[in-house]
Automatic annotation (TrEMBL):
Physiological role: The natural substrate for this enzyme may be peptidyl-tRNAs which drop off the ribosome during protein synthesis.
Protein name, UniProt field: Peptidyl-tRNA hydrolase
An MF annotation (GO) of this entry: peptidyl-tRNA hydrolase activity
RNA-binding in keyword set: no
Length: 112
């Protein structure tokens, strides 16, 4: 079991902003998972990987694939209080789900 978080590299987020957006994405996708998946992932150590995303379009495409595979996922839009314009898509979390299922969606991406 794992979760992959895809963070955009094309919008110039600072390290703190990036960390916050990754955390938002992780929690949002976790909340969309059913009780069994949440329990299994928590008991397995909550494995996560953070990957590089290149555009808003890419994140939406990956989310559509995850949806078609029945994998919990969440796209994060920034509130716009600091570095980014309100509504800017910053990150996507895919999972928790089995490693192989998550890899079918995000396996071609590079580690952040």
């Amino acid at each position: 079991m794992k979760q992959a978080i895809v963070a955009r590299t094309d919008i110039g987020m600072g390290q703190g902003k990036l960390a916050a957006q990754v955390a938002h994405a992780s929690l949002s996708a976790y909340e969309k998972a059913d009780k069994q998946l949440r329990k299994q992932w928590k008991q397995g150590g909550q494995k996560k990987v953070v990957l590089k995303g290149e555009s808003e379009r890419q994140l939406h495409e990956l989310a559509a694939i995850a949806d078609s595979e029945g994998i919990p996922n969440a796209i994060v839009r920034d509130a716009g209080h600091t570095q980014l314009e309100p509504g800017t898509v910053t990150a996507l979390a895919v999972g928790p789900a089995g490693d192989d299922r998550v890899d079918r969606v995000t396996g071609e991406l590079s580690l952040f």
